[in-house]
Amino acid sequence: MVKKTFATIALAVLAVLAVPAAANAAGYVPADDVVVSGTIAPGATVAVAFTDGAFTPGESVSFAVTGSGTATLSAVKAATVSLTKSATSAGAASVNVALPADATGTYTTTATGLTSGTVGTAAITLPTADAGAGSSATDGGLASTGYDAPMLAIWAAAGALLLGVALMVVLTVVRRQRANA
């Protein structure tokens, strides 16, 4: 009975820890490899560049921009636009995003490598009219509401908790068997 209980607990722990691996199957471009340059303002053109090694060299990269209003992506103008370009021999790719004159909110540029499946995103957020320059949580801007703990620490804590529960179950079963013997 102890072996069955232990095997069940071990399978449960493995199932919990193995599920997140499926979400990591696609490649993602790290935020450090995405460069947004230019003045972020209504009517301005912003360059979004994915640095060397972001994509497979020479592969076709599909760009898409979504946001409120009508954005222009290199030469295409629509509410949600897409364009396909080739990555350089070093794996870099870039696109120019022309923001509309009445642009507000956030425009998200997504680049997807059509061969590698690698996905990179860049958010172009226009400041609100009343935000002023340099708005942050310390000077009256919005406070951070996310949780910034590293995922490894969270999974380690969850694993330690599950191992503790498993130990308690095993000790309880052993104690009952000794009491009945």
Shape: elongated
Radius of gyration: 25 Å
Query: How many DSSP E strands?
Result: 7
Uncertain ranges: 131-138
Structural class by SSE content: alpha+beta
* Strand coverage percent: 25-35%
Distance between the termini: 15 Å
Number of helices: 3
Mean pLDDT figure: 79
User: Could you give a short account of the major beta sheet?
Assistant: 7 strands, antiparallel
Portion of residues within helices: 25-40%
The succession of helices and strands, N to C, reads HHEEEEEEEH
What would the keywords be for this entry?
181 residues; alpha+beta; seven-stranded antiparallel β-sheet
What does this molecule look like?
Strands 1, 2, 3, 4, 5, 6 and 7 form a 7-stranded antiparallel beta sheet that branches. Residues 131-138 have low confidence and may be disordered. Helix content is 28%, strand content 31%. The protein has helices at residues 2-18, 20-23, 151-180; strands at residues 34-37, 45-50, 60-73, 76-86, 93-98, 106-113, 119-125. The protein is built from 3 helices and 7 strands; from the N terminus they run H-H-E-E-E-E-E-E-E-H. With 181 residues, the chain is α+β, with helices and mostly antiparallel strands. Helix 1 packs antiparallel against helix 3.
